[in-house]
Amino acid sequence: MLLSRVRHMHRCTASLSQAISHGAAARQKHTLPDLTYDYGALEPHINAEIMQLHHSKHHATYVNNLNVTEEKYQEALAKGDVTAQVSLQGALKFNGGGHINHTIFWTNLSPNGGGEPQGELRDAIQRDFGSVQKMKEKMSAATVAVQGSGWGWLGYDKESGRLRVAACANQDPLQGTTGLIPLLGIDVWEHAYYLQYKNVRPDYVKAVWNVVNWENVSERLQAAKK
Question: How many other β-carbons are positioned within 10 Å of the β-carbon of residue 69?
């Protein structure tokens, strides 16, 4: 009888280990996306040192920590450990948000950026904010006003079909916390600007507009409307 129970426990343990291993193997790990431009391509608005550290160190850390957290979460799911699942939510939100936000941010920027949006995006901005300049002023003000670290966003409200400006603390992802679909984000964590702009956040935010990739923002608006 005892031997039978021991064998049963071994089989259960083996099955659990296989389930965890299968889940880990089936889940594709997140990776750091390549930039489509060199680290120095956004100068003089954002210098190469900032871009290199921001992308290859900070974003990479979010990716690595997200992968580790997801592995722990898979183990907790396999074990039915709800307490562990709940305890991992903060790390999932922070590192997952960091990965999501930065992946958008890099594509929102371009060495050929700046200027004014065109077509449907321009029309939507004029409809919802009065002018492109007023939108920039509203988004800049909301972004500069972020307390501590966070992001300023131009988002799309699918329910109303309108564009909205919002700010998120830390690495909170816009869609996951507000429901707005992210179109354009400005990172105001100090690692995004301090080496060049010190504590003068408004100057950094003003400079970002010179490298905004409006074509990418337009593509995101089109995708959000589908």
Answer: 19
Q: For tokens 């006003």, name the residue.
A: 145
SS3 69: helix
- Summarize pLDDT for 172-191 with one digit per residue, the tens: 999 999 999 999 999 999 99
Q: What is the mean pLDDT of residues 157-162?
A: 97
176 close to 115: Cβ distance less than 8 angstroms: no
Q: Looking at residue 63, what is its pLDDT?
A: 98
Residue pair 183/155 in contact by the 8 Å Cβ criterion? yes
pLDDT at residue 17 greater than cutoff 50: no
Burial of 35 (0-12, 13-18, 19+ CB in 10 A): middle
Helix (H, G, I), strand (E, B) or coil at 117: coil
Residue 224 corresponds to which amino acid? Answer: A
DSSP state of 88: T
Compute the C-alpha angle 191/195/200, nearest 5°: 85
